[in-house]
Amino acid sequence: MNIYKKTPLSIILMVVCFLTACSPVVTPAPNLATSATEAQPTETSAPKVEYTPTYVPTATTQAHSDNLTRDCAKIISGPPSDVQLAGLLVIKPYEDRASSYLLDLSTGNKTSLGRSFRETVSPNGKLLAYADLDTGSIVIADNTGKKIRTVPDPDERLNPAYWLDNQHLSLDHRQGEFGGPYMVSSMITLDPLTGNMQEQMPEFPNLDTFFSPLGWAVSTRFLINPELTHVIYQAREDYGSLLILWDINAKKEIARIPGVHVETPWWSPDGTKIVIGLVPKYIKDDNLPFVDGGDLFTLDATGKFERLTYLTTVHYAVEMSYTWSPDGKSIAFMLQVAPDNKNIANAVPELSILDMETRQVTNLCIPGGGLTWSPDGKYMLINQGLNDGKEKNEVYLVDLENKSAWKVAENAEGRGWMIEQP
Questions:
Q1: What's the CA gap between 230 and 75, in Å, rounded?
Q2: pLDDT tens digits for 188-222?
Q3: Vertex 65, ends 278 and 6: CA angle to 5°?
Q4: What is the pLDDT of residue 202?
Q5: Does the structural domain 3-113+227-418 have CATH classification 2.120.10?
Q6: Which of 50, 159, 261, 347 has the lowest CB atom count within 10 Å?
Q7: Contact, 326 vs 123, CB < 8 A?
Q8: Coil, strand, or helix at residue 126?
Q9: How does DSSP classify residue 26?
Q10: What is the DSSP secondary structure assignment for residue 107, as one 8-state letter?
């Protein structure tokens, strides 16, 4: 799905947030099962839980300036002579979407991964997981493409979803007929080094297990933090869709965000909070100017929202494809700013970086989507497509410090970045 084709955030996110609390229900299950609410039946029955609304969460208010500057990166023909790149890029060619290869940045050599699907790289850049369509298995490979772990999947019901941390990979276990509605029935946590697998039933209240047209960047409806203590998931109740933040150990709802959310609310590297784009006036009426669109917020494990940007005080702005830097000190995202503050459809999404300490937003003026950080956080991969005025889909590498970018692949998509040494 091309992010620049999505519905404006101000339309699709009608967000009103409530904190709720409940008495914990203790169960002896060793997995991640939780109790469910009575409001809407789910696929799995669960005990009744009484919810007592408390208060509308308020966001921490910082000095409100849009803090937006344009520092456009220069497009050059190739890496500067003084830049010594190392590592391997996971590239998926568009002429054969059922394949991928590793591109060695130092030599330009390509290593085929065969017919593959759902490629995802571990946070430290050492391991690559993908579904092998030739062998019907889930593969864990090193940076040479060598298979170091294979999990048989003859029915093709498993999907590499995302890495919880460097030692644990989340696999979605699917049910239903291909070509029709299907659902995620459970999550399997795989330790790629030992091969140990643990199935966990996501019995969270009102979990929307069916895939919908507006999906996240991962093939799942719930994202668990690395410590396995909290989960943010897509739910469905009588009045529609929403996101719920759930405390797994206490079996307690922490916060809810009504509305359909097409952007993935990623957990921070330390697992303490998520980043999410929201309409500010539905989080807190702070009497600040509001043009239209959304701003970036964090939501921590206690249910506290903190506003990161104040772009909508000046602009009609929308943030998409937000992703944390490996050290958690920055957030990269695609920023749309309506040129007339009226028609967001006229705005081209451009790569922007938020500094979490200063809250400065720097627009690098590079259009595209599908962002990937280098493991050291110094570079970025960005995919550019036909909607960006290109004749072919192209992959650009961005030097964030020197504000320059160059093309590394044509008619392809960048899917990950691995370090040179395993």
A1: 41
A2: 889 988 889 988 777 888 887 665 545 677 767 78
A3: 30
A4: 74
A5: yes
A6: 50
A7: yes
A8: coil
A9: -
A10: T
Strand partners for 235? 207, 242
Q: Mean pLDDT over all residues of the chain?
A: 81
pLDDT in tens, 20-30: 333 333 233 32
Query: What single-letter amino acid sits at 111?
Result: T
Task: Using pLDDT thresholds of 50, 70 and 90, give the confidence band for residue 93.
Answer: very high
Confidence at 2, pLDDT banded by 50, 70, 90: very low
| Tokens of residue 303, six digits | 């249910």
Report the candidate in 297, 307, 301 with the shortest Cα–Cα distance to residue 276.
Answer: 297
DSSP string of 279-314?
A: -GGGT--------EE-EEEEEETTS-EEE---GGGT
Q: What is the CA radius of gyration of the chain?
A: 21
Q: Where are the domains of the chain?
A: 3-113+227-418
The torsion angles phi and psi of 95, rounded to 5 degrees, stand at -70, -15
Cα–Cα dist 160/171, whole Å: 5
> Distance (Å, rounded) from C-alpha 279 to C-alpha 229?
27
Query: Sorting pLDDT into bands at 50, 70 and 90, what band is 390?
Result: low
193 close to 168: Cβ distance less than 8 angstroms = no
Amino acid at 87: G
| Residue recorded with tokens 């099962």 | 33
Quick check: 380 and 332 in contact, CB under 8 A?
yes
3-state secondary structure of 184: strand
Q: What is the DSSP letter of 207?
A: B
Position 336, amino acid: Q
Contact 173, 160 (CB under 8 A): no
Cα–Cα distance for residue pair 299/276, rounded to 1 Å: 8
For residue 312, report the phi and psi dihedrals to the nearest 5 degrees: -75, -5
